[in-house]
Input
Amino acid sequence: MNWSEFVRSSPWVATVQTYNNDWTIYACLQQASKQFEHIIVVDDGSTDNSVQVIKKFKGVTLIQNRKNLGFVNSVNYG
Output
């Protein structure tokens, strides 16, 4: 199997890190769900409605940090 065949046959997973982005996370996940079979979202302690928006999407695994740990730590959790 060559690389191109492998890419087409393998399930791809997207990871998204967010913090207080309820105004953009819906559009982000809507587009990502067209491209990826599974999406992991790490919410970095958002205090807005980001979590509620994320929970509307099927096939999304949500990891919630209790407080904002910063981008690097969120990337590592995802």
